[in-house]
Amino acid sequence: MTPIPLNHFVIFSLFLFSIGLYGTLTRRNVIGILMGIELMLNAANINLIAFSRYISPNPETGQIFVIFVIVLAACAAAVGLAIVLAMYQNRKTVQAEDIHILKW
Amino acid sequence: MNAVQSLAHFIPESILIVTGFLILVLDLFSKPKRWLGWLALAGTTGALAYAAATIPGNTLPLFYGYFTIDPFSVFFRITALVIITVTILMALAHKGTPPKQEGELYALLAFIGTGLILMAASTNLLMIFISIEFVSLTSYILAGFEKHEGASNEASLKYLLFGSVASATMLYGMSLLFGLTGSVELNGIRDALAGCGNTGPLLLIAMALLFVGLSFKISAAPFHMWAPDVYTGAPTPIAGFLTVGPKAMGFAILLRVLFIALPALQKEWSSLFAVLSALTMTVGNIAAVSQTNIKRLLAYSSIAQAGYILMGIAAANAIGLEGILFYIAAYALTNLGAFTIVIVVVNQSKSEEISSFAGLAKRSPFIAASLAVFFVSLAGIPPLAGYFGKVLVFAGVIEQKLVALAVIAAVNSAIAAFYYFKVVKEMYLTEPADSVPAERPFPAVLATAIAFLAIAAIGIFPAPLLHWASRSLIF
Predict the structure, then answer these.
(1) Which CATH number characterizes residue A34's domain?
(2) Which residues from chain B sit within 8 angstroms of residue A103, using beta carbons?
(3) Which residues pair with B60 in a beta bridge?
(4) Which of the residues A48, A49, A55, A64 would you substitute to probe the B interface, choosing the one with the greatest number of B C-beta atoms within 10 Å?
(5) Is there a domain that residue A32 lies in?
(6) How many domains is chain A partitioned into structurally?
(7) Complex ipTM, two decimals?
(8) How distant is the Cα of B137 from the closest Cα of chain A, in angstroms?
(9) Which residues of chain A make contact with B291, given a CB cutoff of 8 A?
(10) pLDDT tens for residues B94-129?
């Protein structure tokens, strides 16, 4: 059985990254934006895993990187949701267009 | 060096971490929490004293090379410790921190100090990503620390959203760079790029994506949109910290990435940074002119200052790089001093408008005089620290024959002088509404004195800092 060629992974991750970026730019709901960011991080993870399998002289490097990224993504989600919650308690909204006290 | 051997050289960071956890525990048992701030201050001062007393002469790859102590990281380690010490003093002087959470504020500041040093000492992509995320996540929390204030919430939410997108983009760039070179070590990346001599479009894309994240950290245009809102909404001591701490360390990482990993692409990135530099300073200065809120004015001014520092990167020669280190140290002290005065004034007036500085010279002459000195230094007028920083980056740019950039920067300096002196004029020439002198809490006096004496000393005797900066360059 022939393995899946590397460029399939790279193209897939590029699509995933673009979907995530599109989500962060178009979503109006803050939770939706955070989900888009998760997609972008996971696109990078797929890249790292694929490259460490096909290219890197020592494959652990990329895999360890991915583990750290997963943990940091979880931390970012925890901090992010805490901030969204504080926002919701004060202002009763999670819509990006309602967040506009600060502007020049 | 393995983990146990490394600990002997990891003492300043260990002091900060222990201080942080100690405060978190003591926080549970103490009702008045102010003294925890002094404990944090003792911790950071101890760490600073230790770091300054034991400067290693050679390069030490601690923790299997994941934390590198070399002259460059020692420079930024001491800068970071000074920044965090002054920030804790500012936090002690600031009124408005929710009393229940005061302990956590000092603990977070101790932790973020460790994060800053990690940023300066990382030499591979994994550590760079982890340390940037460490500092960013902690900054998001700190920006939203006054959680019952709508503006503080909004600042932290905006910071979180912009910051996370920038980090994710940077990570994608890192993954491409890893794929192209097969290494996450900056040295390994350089060797792989030097070996193949190939600068294909994919490499340029990877580099550009990586720079998105780093430009966000240093608030370079066009990734600066978050900065004014975050610095305005965040509690004032935190805003002061965010304009210098993460920014200084962002420059440290940028320098390492550019000069260790990507020297093969110097032609590409030096012209890119010349454009970014001109754009950043112009956007910052022009937007600052019309501001009426002092924190927002300082936010735009800090964007413009990042533009001046980027001139050194565009020049990419010895004098420009020395200039970057010198400028960062001078800028950090000056900006922290200016924000301390803002805290003192806003504590009393409860308003962040520039009009609350009216007649400050009559009410409290010393406070007004120090703010005037800080602004003169930021504007780059001799004989203060900011002037020599500007001289060095200008010299670097002119040596590289980037005359257009130097002209743009000179015009920008004139614009900057206009809005700094607008505040000075308000303090000295406008009549005060009342004659009550501003209350001067002791920590604020101490922070102002440190910043004031340091920038005056650096301005009058620039040689020691200049020598130290030139010895700290390892590229």
Answers:
(1) 1.10.287.3510
(2) 229
(3) B69
(4) A48
(5) yes
(6) 1
(7) 0.96
(8) 7
(9) 104
(10) 988 888 889 999 999 999 999 999 999 999 999 999
